[in-house]
Amino acid sequence: MDGTEKKMTPAEELQTTKADGAALREGKNRKKNIWRIVLIVILALIAAGAVYFIQAEAQLDAALEAASYPQALACARRMPWLSFSDAHLTAYLEAHAAAARGDYAGAAKGFEPLGGYRDSTELYLAYATVSRVDDLSFRADADELLAGYEKLKEMARDESYEKNLALYRERIHKAACEKMQEKPADALRLLQAIAGETDVEEDMAVAQIIRNFFSDDRDTVYEDTLEALRPYACNEQAGKFLLSDHFINVFLEGRWETAGADFYYEHMVFDAQEGTGQHLTNMPQPKAAASQFSGGRLLVQYEEGGEPQTLYTFTVKDYDTITILNAYDGQVYTMRRVNA
User: Fold this and answer.
1) Helix (H/G/I), strand (E/B), else coil: 29
2) pTM above the 0.85 mark?
3) Residue 22 has what pLDDT?
4) Side-chain-facing half-sphere of 219: CA atoms under 13 Å
5) Phi, psi dihedral angles at 316 (to 5 degrees)
6) Whose C-alpha in 35, 76, 80, 257 is 20 to 30 A from the C-alpha of 220?
């Protein structure tokens, strides 16, 4: 070679120009195709997102409509945009899910901070009531218990709520029994509320008799009450009332004997209203300065001004049969009424 640049012929220059133009067009077309693909992918993602959004909203609405709160909560947790569109919904559903599990305290805790969101205030009050039923006592408020029961019945839409409703009925029954001796009217109201779903007819009858006893001022109220309670003496609540401080003197009046008449307990009433009387027995017992009934037990003072101690603990087996646990000798004596 001589080092000189060889010039292209016009034909070669034309060919080169065409090739360069084709390469440029090809590059441009490639970029256009890439952008088309990117646009298609973006549109596909948007479409998929829109479909997911619509389906998720539909599933959530269906779950809410069916009051299937655990399912609704699962849907809500797959919808992060809810934190912008409905900031309280997830917390609301978590509280509902806690209630469906029977965690009433957790449900109340979840609804409380939601304030006026949907029916959170009403639900908080209802579940706060339900959660306190675990610790029922004589002091439990009947109106509060009944309000909680009515609210729970309104919400009982599936099997989990029905189980909770049955459990709540048991708790109301327990509350009624605890109230029966001192607040029989409240006990009767509680029992009437669950009468259609729970076998409480016998307890209702006893509550009615006890209520009548406290509201009746006739001279024959003790005799009438004894006669009314006779068919129900095997009922636990009737037995408790027969041995209550109001009634034990009257119920025990007369003579009771063990089989074979080896031992007896004889009770005389001085004043039914005052609860005073006297007993005689040949069961082993210490000398005592004084005695009194309290809670189905005979308490004695072994010396004047001494601390009362339990001597006899009575239990009703039926109207004409009692057992006496004698703390002095540790024996249990089963006795029958001999002057029935």
Assistant:
1) helix
2) no
3) 61
4) 0
5) -90, 125
6) 257
> Which has more pLDDT, 18 or 235?
235
Tens-place pLDDT, residues 54-72: 777 788 888 888 878 888 8
Percentage of the chain modeled with pLDDT above 70: 82
Q: Which two tokens stand for residue 292?
A: 């009194």
Checking 46-54 for CB contacts under 8 A at 24+ apart, the result is 53/81
Nearest to 94 by CA among 115, 75, 122: 75
Q: What is the pLDDT of residue 138?
A: 45
Q: Yes or no: say if 338 and 255 are a contact pair by the CB < 8 Å rule.
A: yes
293 contact partners, CB below 8 Å, separation of at least 6: 245, 248, 249, 275, 299
Cβ-Cβ contacts under 8 Å for 37 (sequence gap 6 or more): none
Residue that the structure tokens 């069961």 belong to: 283
- The first and second tokens of residue 253, run together, are 């009046």
- The DSSP line for 292-306 is EEETTEEEEESSTTP
Distance CA 230, CA 208 (A): 14
Contact in structure between 204 and 195 (CB atoms under 8 Å): yes
| CA 150 to each of CA 1, 97, 219: distance values in angstroms, whole numbers, following the listed order | 109, 20, 40
CA 273/CA 162 separation, integer angstroms: 46
CB 254 within 8 A of CB 331: no
For the chain, percent helix, then strand, then coil, each to nearest 5? 60, 15, 30
